[in-house]
Amino acid sequence: MATIRSVLQEAADTLRRHGLPSPRLDAEVLLCRCLRTDRTHLYTYPEEILGEHAVRGFLGWVERRRKQEPVAYIIGEKEFWSIPFAVNRHVLIPRAETEILVEEALRVVGGRCNILDVGTGSGAVAVALSRELPLARVVATDRSAAAAETAARNAQRAGVADRVCVLVADLLESIRGPLDMIVSNPPYIPDDEFEELPPGVREYEPKEALWAAGDGTAVHRLLIGGAAAVLKDGGWLLMETGDRQAERLVEAFRMDGRYDRIEIRKDYGGRDRVVKARKRELEHG
């Protein structure tokens, strides 16, 4: 008879043999979701006998994980900013380091403000900001209709659908200002790094949300060029970036000439993660 202990051990051994980096944790997360329970239950009742249906479903999920499919796609969920988000293969899986983008955004705006999240994907950044800024109006755009649908569903699930408007649009298309802030986690994996990504990322997550031509800053540069037209004077543009790209983007902001207070924020691993700049305020008098 299959018990919690025995199926976990079998699953962890299978994933370990195939080189998965966290086999036991993956097995536990998958079994918890399959049984609709938590990890405390697994440790408290290791000899609990499992039904055939549960075992079959769990081992099917383990097989998917063995083939490198991300756990978040298998269970259909990923937590970000302590909020559970529905995810699927139409959207990038939210990463912990993207919370730096939210942190920086909260440093520069507050109260009643108008925010645009470009390339929203699952809606993680837009929803997190709306949760923290209940008086803000947030517009979230994505060129993918399937991604926009996922973001709208997540806004509804998080209870902020009345404050987050999700649109199908490419970058700043159809956007009218004035905005207090634009945030974006655009694709920034350059040509020479894309093929080096782990298989679970390269083969399962949407390439259009990861890869950008050339040095990876093409989308950032489009946003730098277009954002000033819809930002109010003193409004902010914040973008997530790759570790080797931030200094180039600082220079792009400077060359544009319409921005000041240009800064780089590192993540907690010491890597450049967010570049931000303010649209210059007009001098009066």
What's this, in brief?
By secondary structure, the protein is an alpha/beta fold. Helices cover 40% and strands 20% of the residues.
Description of the molecule:
It is a single chain. With 285 residues, the protein is an alpha/beta fold. It folds into two domains: 4-67, Helicase, Ruva Protein, domain 3; 88-279, Vaccinia Virus protein VP39 (Rossmann fold, 3-Layer(aba) Sandwich). Helices cover 40% and strands 20% of the residues. It has twelve helices and nine strands. It has helices at residues 4-17, 23-35, 39-44, 52-66, 71-75, 99-108, 124-132, 145-157, 191-194, 199-202, 218-227, 246-256; strands spanning 77-80, 83-86, 114-118, 137-142, 164-168, 179-184, 231-240, 259-266, 272-279. The strands form two sheets. A seven-stranded mixed β-sheet has the order 5-4-3-6-7-9-8, with helices on both faces. A hairpin with a 2-residue loop joins strand 1 (77-80) and strand 2. Helix 1 (4-17) crosses helix 2, helix 2 (23-35) packs antiparallel against helix 4 and helix 6 (99-108) runs parallel beside helix 7. The model has no long low-confidence stretch (mean pLDDT 96).
